[in-house]
C-alpha cells in the first residue's frame, strides 16, 4: 500500500496544559483555522478536565477528540482513574497510550500498555500506541531492540482487525521537548523498521495499512520534510499544538 492510501494523522497532545476556558479558546481558534482542510485526520488531546468542553466545541467539525491516557478496567475502586467507557461517553475517538512520560514518571510498562490498548479497543476507542528510545539507548545502538520490545509488548495478542484500529507513534525520547528532532532520514529509518516489524508480527497487508506517526519536537518548520518520508504517516505534536496557529500550520503541512 502506498503512503497515499494511508490518511495522514496529526494529533496535538496538550499534556498538563490548558484550563477549560483556555481549552475552549484554543479549540475554537483551531476549528476556524482548519475548517477547509481535507484529507488529513486532525486530533486534539486535552487533559481529562477539558474533554467535555472541547468535545462540544468540535461537534460537527473535522477535528477528532483524544484522551491522553486510560485505565485498563471499566469501573471499580480505582480512585483517580478514568475508564474507556467514560472517555467514549464524553466524545473521544482516540486515546494516547504508553507515552514516554507515562513510562518515565508513572511506571507504565509494556504489560500495562497492552492492557490499556485492549480496554480501549473493547469500547471502540482507537489507541495511539507510543514507542521510543532514550538517548543513551540510541547511543548504545539499541534503538531497534527497544522499539521491537515496545511494539511487540504493546500489541501482544491483538487480532489483525484490532491492529488496524491502532496508530503507532514513534517518539524518540531524546527529541521530546528538547528542541532536537530526528532527521527525516532517522525518522524514516525507524518508521520503516516498525512497519517491517508489524509485517512479521501480523502480515504485510496489515502493516501496510497501519499509520505510524512521528513525535518529537515537531514544528511548522520541519513538519513538511518529516511528512514527506514514505513511512511517516503523521505527527504527534506536543508544544506546537498549544497554539492554534502553529498547530494549524502543521496540519497544513502539504499546502
Brief summary:
With 255 residues, the protein is α/β, with parallel strands linked by helices. The protein has helices at 20-33, 51-57, 84-89, 100-106, 110-122, 135-139, 143-154, 160-163, 184-201, 204-209, 220-227, 244-251; strands spanning 9-13, 41-45, 63-67, 94-97, 126-131, 167-170, 211-214, 234-237.
Overview of this structure, please?
The protein is of the alpha/beta class and 255 residues long. Helix content is 42%, strand content 15%. It contains 12 helices and 8 strands. An 8-stranded parallel barrel has the order 1-2-3-4-5-6-7-8, surrounded by 6 helices. Strand 1, helix 1 and strand 2 form a beta-alpha-beta unit. Helix 1 packs parallel to helix 12, helix 5 packs across helix 7 and helix 7 crosses helix 9. The chain is globular and about 45 Å long. 43% of the residues are buried. The mean pLDDT is 96.
Set out the fold topology.
Layout: E1 9-13, H1 20-33, E2 41-45, H2 51-57, E3 63-67, H3 84-89, E4 94-97, H4 100-106, H5 110-122, E5 126-131, H6 135-139, H7 143-154, H8 160-163, E6 167-170, H9 184-201, H10 204-209, E7 211-214, H11 220-227, E8 234-237, H12 244-251
Parallel strand pairs: 1-2, 1-8, 2-3, 3-4, 4-5, 5-6, 6-7, 7-8
Helix pairs in contact: 1-12, 5-7, 7-9, 11-12
Approximate helicity band: 40-55%
User: If helices are DSSP runs of H or I spanning 4 or more residues, what is the number of helices?
Assistant: 12
Report strand %. Answer: 5-15%
Q: Report the average pLDDT across residues.
A: 96
Q: Please tell me how large the radius of gyration is.
A: 17 Å
- How far do the termini sit from each other? 23 Å
Kindly name the structural category: alpha/beta
Strand segment count = 8
Q: Can you write the helix and strand succession as a string?
A: EHEHEHEHHEHHHEHHEHEH
* Main sheet strand line-up: 1-2-3-4-5-6-7-8
Unreliable runs:
none
Q: What overall geometry do the principal axes of the alpha carbons give? A: globular
Main sheet?
A: 8 strands, parallel, barrel
Amino acid at each position: 500500500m502506498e503512503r497515499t492510501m494511508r490518511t495522514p494523522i496529526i494529533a496535538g497532545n496538550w499534556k498538563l496544559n490548558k484550563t477549560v476556558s483556555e481549552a475552549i479558546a484554543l479549540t475554537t481558534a483551531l476549528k476556524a483555522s482548519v475548517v477547509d482542510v481535507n484529507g488529513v485526520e486532525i486530533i486534539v488531546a486535552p487533559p481529562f478536565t477539558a474533554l467535555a468542553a472541547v468535545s462540544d466545541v468540535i461537534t460537527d467539525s473535522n477535528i477528532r477528540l483524544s484522551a491522553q491516557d486510560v485505565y485498563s478496567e471499566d469501573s471499580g475502586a480505582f480512585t483517580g482513574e478514568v475508564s474507556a467507557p467514560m472517555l467514549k461517553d464524553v466524545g473521544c475517538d482516540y486515546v494516547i497510550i504508553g507515552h514516554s512520560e507515562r513510562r518515565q514518571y508513572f511506571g507504565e510498562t509494556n504489560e500495562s500498555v497492552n492492557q490499556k490498548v485492549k480496554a480501549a479497543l473493547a469500547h471502540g476507542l482507537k489507541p495511539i500506541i507510543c514507542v521510543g528510545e532514550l538517548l543513551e539507548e540510541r547511543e548504545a545502538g539499541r534503538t531497534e531492540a527497544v522499539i521491537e520490545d515496545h511494539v511487540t509488548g504493546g500489541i501482544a495478542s491483538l487480532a489483525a482487525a484490532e491492529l488496524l484500529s491502532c496508530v503507532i507513534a514513534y517518539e524518540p525520547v531524546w527529541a521530546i521537548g528538547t528542541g532536537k528532532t530526528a532527521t527525516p532520514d532517522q525518522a524514516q529509518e525507524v518508521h520503516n523498521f516498525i512497519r517491517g516489524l508489524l509485517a512479521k508480527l501480523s502480515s504485510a497487508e496489515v502493516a501496510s495499512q497501519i499509520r505510524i506517526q512521528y513525535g518529537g519536537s515537531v514544528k511548522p518548520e520541519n513538519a513538511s520534510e518529516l511528512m514527506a518520508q514514505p513511512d511517516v504517516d503523521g505527527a504527534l505534536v506536543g508544544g506546537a499544538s498549544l497554539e492554534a496557529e502553529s498547530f494549524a500550520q502543521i496540519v497544513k503541512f502539504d499546502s
